[in-house]
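Course exercise 7: structure representation. Students receive a sequence record and must write out the corresponding structure in token form. The form below is the worked example handed out in class, using Acetyl-CoA carboxylase carboxyltransferase subunit (532 residues). Read each field label carefully; the graders check that inputs and outputs are placed in the correct fields and that the protein name is recorded exactly as given.

STUDENT ID: A-19
EXERCISE PROTEIN: Acetyl-CoA carboxylase carboxyltransferase subunit
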Amino acid sequence: MTVLASALDTSAPEYAAHRAAMLAKLDDLAAEHAKAVAGGGEKYTARHRARGRLTARERIELLLDPDTPFLELSPLAAWGSDYAVGASLVTGIGVVEGVECLITANDPTVRGGASNPWTLKKALRANEIAAANRLPVVSLVESGGADLPSQKEIFIPGGGLFRDLTRLSAAGVPTVAVVFGNSTAGGAYVPGMSDHVIMVKEQAKVFLGGPPLVRMATGEESDDESLGGAEMHARVSGLADYFAVDEKDALRQARRVVARLNWRKTADRPGHVEPPLHDEDELLGIVPGDLKVPFDPREVIARLVDGSDFDEFKPRYGTSLVTGWARLHGHPLGILANAQGVLFSEESQKAAQFIQLANQRDIPLLFLHNTTGYMVGRAYEQGGIIKHGAMMINAVSNSRVPHLSVLMGASYGAGHYGMCGRAYDPRFLFAWPSAKSAVMGPQQLAGVLSLVARASAAAGGRPYDEEADAALRAMVEQQIEAESLPAFLSGRLYDDGVIDPRDTRTVLGICLSAVHGAPVEGARGGFGVFRM
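STUDENT ANSWER:
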């Protein structure tokens, strides 16, 4: 039988402790997500509503098909920075008239929806997802343009937003802009470069330069409506394809535009879907609070895949990496999951072969991270750990099937690379609240710095200050611990969101559906030289 049995004892004290630790982390995460939902805060939200306007998330809700999910992406963008959590932009994947779309919505309650450096990074990531997965883009626009004090970080790379829209259109991926308010300066090019444009009566304002700038540049006196109002663009300039009487009418028209796209997925539809045999709620108690304690990733897999059915590949070889085949929401899937944390030569070679097989069969890959990296030591260096680790990284780098990554626990060192970290372009990467990622663990990194400093002092014949060493180690450990946490990394868009483990199957199901919007084709050869 290939159905996974579970050895998880939900009555054990260890399970209760792990679950309690995860729930505490989820409470902290909920508080941070609430900051993004709050946008500019109660004062500015109330002022926005007093003008008869909908919030960004209300606009998205009316745009989407009823009772369909919205997978919000990068909700913690800008966390830990001087800018509002969420980066004044909401992005995500949702279904409009039966069509999966990439949706972006400016949050006008945060500095009028102005774009800061993190807004730009978040928007570019959204465009990247749309292009890779051939998702039509719907932009819900209300933005004052660039946050001028930070223009030095926005202006040069910001042109990529407009480049992306034109490239999407050239690739046959539809783009729709719905303008609710200001869309000025560079922001005017969002509707200007979209395939379909809807503007709201007496609200939409689209111009390269507003009345004050026009007055300064040319001496001409003008008003918002004649310069860039919806009526003018619908009747005179022709920029507006559709004229909406209010916001709800604009969203209704946007749904009709999507309905008329004649959009069809290029990939096969999923097969029969079965729920896992084991309760997804139990995912809360699998990962230990102390990531040095190993756990069996099969317990996770059994609660993610259809029917808990998993055909393990090479189960007796390279046992600290679990590999095998399954289906998730009807989609075929290859899975690589870290078992005991460390990757040895056998695991690296096993992974490389498995990745090649997935490419031959055109099967997407899921990487479940809990690794401290590749093994070090004289015997392992002499055994070829470098060339075998390079073999695995080579396979990941040149694989052409879609990759999905979930950081469950540790994801340290080159093991993060070999397991398809952010730099290796997974289509989507999510983290659990239990995850940590850095060049190495805090204690190890602080210890290495201490050893180097101690050796330097000895070489120079200087006495070593043990008290200063202890203070340095404590400071470094605290810094690395803080910089390894999911909220910190998510704030810098090193993942696409920190998710509740119980939502993992749903999130992956949405992602797998999205990646099948583009052809799923593996590499036929095309790998670099595998050093044997």
